[in-house]
Amino acid sequence: MESVRLNEADLELDLAHHPEIAVLARQEDLAAAEARVAQASRTPDWTVELAYQQRGPAFSNMVSVGVSVPLPWDRGNRQDREIASKLATAEQARSQREELLRAHMGEVRALLLEWQNGRERLVRYEKDLVPLAAERSRAALAAYQGGRAGITDLLLARRNETDLRLQAVQLEMETARLWAQLNFLIPSDHREARQ
Questions:
Q1: Which pLDDT band, with edges at 50, 70 and 90, does 193 fall under?
Q2: What's the Cα-to-Cα distance from 24 to each of 20, 122, 132, rounded to whole Å?
Q3: pTM, two decimal places
Q4: To pair with 126 at 20 to 30 A between CA atoms, which of 51, 69, 99, 184?
Q5: Contact 20/117 with Cβ under 8 angstroms?
């Protein structure tokens, strides 16, 4: 629980392999390919045909040549519109992927910050607050045994110590949950392949 596999410097590269973002990246690639196909269909596809026909004895053999040149008719309303539509779809897919990537990066950065703050608070509980509460409990017990304090003071000191220990355990649980969430956010096979 001391470190996570995510590094803030490589966060964008790591999140590119997040399943939701990977799906949008594939959709973006598909839309870009469709736009390239639409642009390629804008140029005419010339064809030349050559045919040889061997006919019966009553007729002579025949050779035929055919040339086909498509004439783009009303290019502005037909082909250009389709290309613009495919390019807009590709741009929309790219924007959606980038928006989701930014949102995930913000969420992960917030989780990283929350995890780091939880670790710092946990250290403070373990080094300062819990030992201080335990010392107060021991002092209250000594005062009770010496007849200078009542049972109420002793019970309040022990309750305070117990409450602080419980808060430390809850904080440790939350920090461990954040650690697990951060460590298993990106598939491990991607991280191992990069190293």
A1: very low
A2: 7, 39, 53
A3: 0.65
A4: 184
A5: no
